[in-house]
Recover the amino acids of this structure.
């Protein structure tokens, strides 16, 4: 049975399910980002406070830049859920496959998401596209449950909004985003420490990979793209997480409507990150290829080799690119009437 995503009703359903459950597993999507990790940690702290038994599972390790967050070491890396749980909270997942986790089917599933590609696949679904980060929904849940927001929870939640807005640069940035951040600072999160840990402790392997990506940079007709190969990864000893944020360098180039970052995977497939300056909804393009995300930020995977994948996505994007004057007007109207977020 699926419940409505009407915000109030949906939140109430989540609250009832939390009261009813005893043994929870908290999961998010594979290759977790700051919003996924911070939301998992804060949710686990919340459930622990309510006296529930909780464990956190992730199919991929916590990225290095988020390992300093309180309780991050409690996240277990596995793709198999054991049978000891009665309920699962899925954060930021548009379906079970996105978690790359086995054994969720047997549990009562609670889905909390803010993606445009969010779907009502669970027993309880709370999907709110207006939230700047999934962490904002976790915060609302904690308040609705009458929980105390500890400094540790505030720290994790601050990391969700900081990273999902690209350091308060992208997406659904409204006054309420800053009000949320301000509340978290008042509750004990440290914005300087968080910025330093997340943005100013880059491993060399990440910067060298960025260098390789920038030297591949190309621009044509409103589209800017850049790529890295398996050879680059091996040469610099880079990890998957070192790709985080590279696409934004392409988006920041004058005249760019859509930025694409292409990354060659070990199996020869090509993973794409798509970013839009506001006029084009890249979530719909990514969904065509089995991917998903937000209006201005999405991802999908194509078959290789690199050159073929590049030509394939360029051909699709060419059809969406607007003449320059329309682009500016449409991007502005989208920002004022229908905000979207990364
Ligand atoms: Mn998010």
């Amino acid at each position: 049975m699926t419940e409505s995503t009407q915000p109030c009703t949906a939140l109430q359903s989540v609250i009832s399910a939390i009261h009813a459950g005893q043994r929870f597993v908290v999961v998010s999507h594979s290759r977790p980002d700051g919003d996924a990790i911070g939301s998992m940690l804060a949710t686990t702290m919340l459930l622990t406070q309510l006296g529930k038994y909780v464990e956190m599972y992730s199919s991929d390790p916590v990225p290095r830049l988020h390992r300093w967050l309180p309780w991050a070491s409690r996240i277990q890396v596995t793709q198999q859920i054991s049978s000891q749980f009665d309920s699962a909270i899925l954060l930021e997942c548009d379906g079970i496959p996105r978690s790359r986790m086995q054994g969720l089917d047997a549990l009562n599933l609670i889905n909390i998401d803010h993606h445009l590609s969010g779907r009502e696949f669970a027993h309880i679904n709370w999907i709110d596209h207006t939230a700047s980060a999934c962490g904002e929904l976790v915060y609302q849940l904690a308040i609705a449950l009458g929980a105390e927001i500890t400094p540790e929870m505030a720290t994790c939640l601050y990391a969700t909004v900081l990273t999902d807005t690209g350091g308060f640069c992208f997406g659904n940035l409204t006054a309420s985003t800053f009000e949320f951040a301000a509340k978290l600072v008042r509750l004990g999160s440290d914005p300087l420490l968080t910025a330093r840990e997340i943005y100013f402790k880059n491993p060399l392997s990440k910067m060298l990979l960025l260098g390789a990506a920038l030297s591949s940079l190309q621009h044509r007709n409103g589209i800017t793209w850049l790529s890295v190969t398996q050879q680059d990864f091996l040469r610099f000893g880079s990890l998957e997480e070192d790709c985080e944020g590279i696409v934004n360098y392409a988006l920041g180039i004058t005249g760019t409507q859509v930025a694409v970052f292409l990354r060659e995977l070990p199996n020869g497939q090509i993973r794409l990150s798509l970013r839009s300056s506001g006029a084009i909804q890249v979530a719909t393009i990514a969904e065509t290829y089995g991917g998903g995300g937000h209006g201005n930020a999405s991802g999908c995977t194509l078959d290789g080799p690199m050159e073929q994948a590049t030509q394939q996505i360029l051909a699709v994007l060419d059809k969406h690119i607007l003449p320059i004057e329309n682009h500016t007007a449409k991007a502005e109207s989208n920002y004022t009437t229908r905000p979207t977020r990364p």
